[in-house]
Write a structure and sequence with these properties.
mainly alpha, two-stranded antiparallel sheet, 14 helices, 4% strand
């Protein structure tokens, strides 16, 4: 077994878990202004109150794992995305503080609601633009970042940022469809349909942009024999997208959320097809950036112990709070 490949999958799993779990938290924040002040916003926030803080565990695991297992990639990516990383962290701080203070400082509820919305939007946009920076390529010379301060700001990164915002809004709205009822659920279904359409359109736009962005990306998606391995991803994505739209229109409760997760999974599979084995396109593969084998083995033992614990307590928290959210909290 290639330890470097194993670690690449561990990091990918942690990133996917974070995107899905904290994605619907951020999505609710992005949609927050669309809900009525009072019970609408309170119930939306109560639906994530028991789990939102634990969801960010996966961000720590993904970032810490990248630093430990692929230190060269960490050293290159951070200087290339410092403004985005700083904006993301500030957004998460504002989101977290607003989450706690809006219940305790009722005189400034409007300010905390705005901070919750703004922090969620900035964090989501920053994460999507960081992905765009990776995909468009980072200039590396002598194993160090050699680009400029503004390389992260391009039409492509703005497009990937917008796609991430729409995707998180989709996750958040489908979560609320599952967890709420009555008028708030109807509103969540209304915004879910629009978020789903926006997500599907932007996913398609990013995919087409990738083909013209890099000749190697185009070869992986359009040239034989690679196209035969890649073809199932867009085909399955189209099937899931149609099923998602139909499930929202039919009034399903929990199915839209799981289909939204499936859509994100296929999006990540598409990223794998596009990027692998590069961790920092176009110059650094996972083997170029990997830590020494002894370090990988040492860390793998720790992950083998801690990751099942994280998955276990996360699953338990979601199981305990598996019901609908009424006006007084979980049923």
């Amino acid at each position: 077994m290639d330890l470097t490949v194993i670690w690449a999958f561990i990091i990918a799993f942690a990133v996917f878990a974070y995107v899905v779990m904290d994605g619907f938290d951020l999505g609710i924040g992005i949609l927050f202004p669309t809900f009525r002040v009072g019970q609408g916003r309170n119930r939306a926030m109560n639906s994530i109150a028991p789990v939102w803080d634990g969801n960010e565990t996966w961000l720590v695991l993904g970032g810490g794992g990248l630093f430990a297992a692929f230190p060269l990639a960490y050293a290159v990516v951070l200087p290339a995305t410092y403004p985005l990383i700083i904006a993301m962290l500030l957004g998460l701080v504002f989101r977290g503080v607003a989450f706690e203070y809006r219940w305790r400082d009722e005189r400034h509820t409007k300010f905390w609601d705005l901070a919750f919305f703004g922090g969620s939007l900035i964090a989501a946009m920053s994460q999507g633009m960081t992905l765009g920076v990776l995909l468009q390529g980072i200039e590396v010379v002598d194993r160090a970042y050699a680009g400029s301060w503004w390389d992260w700001l391009t039409p492509y990164t703005l497009l990937t940022g917008a796609g991430t915002v729409a995707g998180y809004a989709l996750l958040g709205s489908t979560w609320l469809i599952w967890k709420l009822d009555k008028g708030v659920q109807r509103h969540a279904r209304y915004v879910a349909m629009r978020s789903a359409i926006a997500t599907i359109v932007l996913m398609g736009a990013v995919s087409l942009y990738n083909i013209f962005l890099n000749a190697e990306y185009a070869d992986r998606w359009l040239s034989a024999p690679e196209v035969y391995l890649a073809a199932p991803v867009p085909i399955l994505t189209a099937i899931i997208a149609i099923a998602l739209l139909r499930s929202i229109a039919r009034g399903s409760d929990h199915t839209p959320f799981w289909l939204a997760i499936a859509l994100f999974f296929l999006g990540m599979a598409g990223l794998g097809v596009t990027m692998f084995p590069y961790i920092v396109p176009p110059g650094l593969t996972i083997w170029d950036a990997a830590a020494p084998e002894s370090s990988q083995i040492f860390m793998l033992v720790g992950v083998a112990i801690t990751m099942p614990l994280i998955i276990g307590y996360t699953a338990w928290a979601y199981w305990v709070f598996r019901g609908k959210v009424g006006e007084e909290g979980y049923h």
